[in-house]
Design goal:
The complex is a heterodimer. By secondary structure, chain A is of the alpha/beta class. Chain A has 2 domains: 224 residues, P-loop containing nucleotide triphosphate hydrolases (Rossmann fold, 3-Layer(aba) Sandwich); 104 residues, no CATH class. Chain A is built from 13 helices and 13 strands. In chain A, the strands form 2 sheets. An 8-stranded mixed β-sheet of chain A has the order 7-8-9-3-10-11-13-12, with helices on both faces. In chain A, strands 1, 2, 4, 5 and 6 form a 5-stranded antiparallel β-sheet that branches. The radius of gyration of chain B is 21 Å and the shape is globular. Classes of the chains: A alpha/beta, B alpha/beta.
């Protein structure tokens, strides 16, 4: 890939929060890059740090967040923390924009839709009232809202959930961003509406040649919609790969376990699900070793004492952070040893694992 | 009205029979929200009935109306041979031990100020006036059954547990009075996928162990398929289709079921994303469409759909649909695009 194709580069991003319980390491050293026009899916469960990761990139963290100097976010080669005041003012929201999970709380309930869409056009692009209004109308058509003129003078509560999310997408697109970050854009929506919104995002992305980061907890959502996927667990990226490679060849035990725990429509009813035992670690505690080890059926002594790094796996563009990656000979040995003992090195009881 | 009919009812064998259930809520200025409009369903003993549909289809209202929370506007709910709708307050209260409910948000459905043991034991102390040794034993038994360690959890409070563990406590609380029927209203939709699988497995185990009959309400089609013996698809207060899950998902007959299935994102990049999406928006339940309620968004809608309401009829063994133009040659949905 040519270097000028690179749009976003995140290096060793750490976002910690100062809380009454101590330092909470929500994101703990994540690196990835994104090319122009590319779609990256970031998958993880609650508390994996996926939302904090993109909020750090968008510079919308709360005041108790601590991001060390060594964490770098480069956009088109430029370190975004080095932007001067004037540049920064028109950077977030124009170059990079974001769509949030719940459209009811991300829209202002007491302002008309039209005002909310034109606001950023007027502020960032210095458009006149007339121009901004025209732009708002165009955007409403683009995101598929019927009767745009009427809708512009309505309030958010007068729209359905799907329509509201279309409005937030229109707002995000208002200044032609090069990167759109969508943080669980469809989690609050019904499945048929989810499909409409995901289809809309895909077509807009192609039309406007944007790059997109799609955050979700649903492997089904990223499967058909992204080129690359990053899987996060407990503040770390544990596996990244091209979408087709990842689904064909899952290396990290967490990715495998997550995939297996999804109930599939293709399975017969009453198929027993492979649940992941236990729950994610407390991020305010000092964590040693692999963070997934306590729940991992392959865990060995090394996993408890040493933390695996995100390294190149067999296929190009495929990285994983595991000492005993699924599909390797090491993994088979580890699985056999644990099966025989009935318990993993981290103390997970494999015989009772199905219940808890 | 769209989707009435009782062709799918199985007569006297059923443990729970609901007929012509209608729930309306006042919406001011004489308007009413038609939340549930004349649906009928039944559940056999030991069966899991899945009720699936999107927001506003009336699935939760149906579940609550069965529990008489609040009682339905009209219709009958017969549980184990007893008509529930006309009962006095006290009679209703007495019948409730045998029918329990599990809710969507496990954390808000537990009293944060009470200890887990007291939460689970409350039913026992009310019903059997029992707070002594045998109650303690029973509480321990159900806590253990749901995969919690009674010694360590009994004296803690709900905020010390994760969402999945709180849902286990809710299940234990529902089990403690040995109910016959548990109505699960979106029991896993607030949980992460990995925890969701734990809870779904647990519900299956509990069903087996305690001989339960479940009404499982959810919006997730894959989840409903996984646990159910029979599935009802609802849309805007009406039943669209009733079938055994494997049948329903491989041969959806109702156009709404079809589009619902096509909307599920499949975790398989080799499978192309279906092009079909649902048209338009959900009509208002205050003023639902005449005839078939789905006709305003249906590709197949004809004039008859607006004038005449389709009733449920059997199209193949144990497969019922309320549509004038059901899919004639059933093919697997993913191949039809």
């Amino acid at each position: 890939m040519q270097p000028d194709q690179r749009l976003l580069e995140v290096t060793d991003l750490k976002t910690h929060f100062d809380t009454p319980r101590g330092i909470l390491k929500a994101v703990d050293g994540v690196s990835f890059s994104l090319n122009k026009g590319e779609t990256l899916g970031i998958v993880g469960e609650s508390g994996s740090g996926k939302s904090v990761l993109v909020r750090s990139i968008m510079n919308i963290l709360t005041s108790n967040a601590i991001v060390p100097q060594s964490s770098k976010v480069r956009f088109e080669g430029k370190d975004v923390s080095q932007l001067n005041k004037a540049e920064a003012k028109h950077f977030w929201g124009t170059q990079m924009a974001m769509v949030f999970q719940d459209p009811m709380t991300s829209l202002n309930p007491v302002k008309k839709i039209g005002v909310q869409i034109t606001e950023s056009v007027r502020f960032h692009l210095h458009a006149s009232k007339q121009e901004a209004l025209q732009r708002a109308m165009d955007l409403m058509v683009q995101v598929g809202i019927p009767e745009p003129r009427k809708r512009l003078s309505e309030y958010p509560h007068q729209l359905s959930g799907g329509m509201r999310q279309r409005v937030t997408i229109a707002i995000a697109l208002a200044c032609n961003p090069k990167l759109l970050i969508a943080d669980e854009p469809t989690t609050a929506l019904d499945v048929t509406v989810q499909k409409q919104i995901l289809d809309l995002l895909a077509s807009l992305q192609e039309e406007l040649d944007m790059a997109m980061i799609l955050i979700t907890h649903d492997l089904g959502v990223v499967a058909g919609r992204t080129q690359r996927i990053g899987v996060m667990y407990a503040g770390k990226m544990v596996e990244t790969a091209d979408t087709s490679t990842l689904f064909a060849n899952m290396h990290h035990p967490y990715t495998e376990a997550l995939f297996k725990s999804i109930p599939r429509v293709d399975n017969e009813s009453h198929t027993r699900l492979d649940a992941i035992s236990g729950r994610p670690p407390d991020m305010a505690r000092e964590l040693v070793g692999c963070r997934f080890a306590p729940r991992c059926r392959y865990a060995q002594n090394r996993c408890i004492s040493e933390e695996p790094e995100l390294l190149e796996a067999s296929a190009p563009n495929h990285q994983q952070a595991c000492f005993y990656p699924v599909g390797s000979a090491h993994n088979q040995q580890a699985a056999a040893a644990n099966q025989q003992a009935g318990i993993t090195a981290a103390g997970l009881d494999l015989t009772a694992a199905a219940v808890s | 009205m769209a989707g009435t009919g009782k062709a799918h009812l199985r007569g006297n064998e059923a443990l729970l029979t609901v007929e012509d259930l209608t729930v309306e809520f006042p919406a001011g200025r004489k308007a009413v929200v038609n939340a549930v409009s004349g649906i009928s369903l039944d559940v056999l003993e030991g069966e899991t009935l899945g009720v699936v549909g999107e927001s506003g289809c009336g699935k939760s209202t149906t579940g609550r109306a069965i529990m008489q929370l609040p009682p339905p506007t009209s219709g009958s709910v017969i549980f184990d041979g007893m008509e529930m709708t006309g009962l006095s307050k006290e009679e209703l209260r007495r019948s409730r031990t045998r029918m329990q409910m599990i809710f969507q948000d496990p954390i808000s459905s537990l009293n944060p100020r009470r200890k887990v043991h007291d939460i689970v034991a409350e039913g026992l102390s009310i019903w059997h006036n029992d707070s002594g040794h045998s109650a303690k034993q029973k509480v321990h038994e159900v806590l253990e059954a749901v995969g919690l360690d009674p010694e360590t959890v009994a004296d803690r409070r709900p905020h010390q547990f994760s969402g999945g563990q709180c849902q286990r406590i809710c299940i234990a609380r529902a089990l403690v009075l040995d109910p016959k029927v548990i109505i699960c209203d979106e029991p896993v939709s607030a949980l992460d996928v990995s925890v969701q699988a734990q809870i779904l497995n647990l519900l299956e185990d509990m069903k087996e162990r305690y001989g339960l009959t479940l009404v499982f309400i959810a919006h997730d089609l894959a989840v409903v398929k996984n646990v159910s013996d029979r599935v009802i698809v609802m849309y805007l207060g009406k039943i669209c289709e009733v079938a055994a899950p494997d049948n329903l998902y491989s041969h959806p007959a109702h156009p709404y079921t079809d589009v619902l299935l096509a909307s599920i994102p499949e975790p398989d990049p080799q499978q192309p994303v279906p092009e079909r999406q649902i048209a338009g928006e959900l009509p208002s339940p205050i003023n639902p469409p005449s005839g078939c309620r789905f006709r305003t968004r249906c590709e197949k809608a004809q004039e008859i759909c607006s004038t005449e309401e389709p009733t449920l009829r059997e199209i193949s063994t144990n497969h019922y649909v309320a549509c004038h133009f059901p899919n004639e040659t059933p093919t697997k949905v993913i191949n039809t695009f």
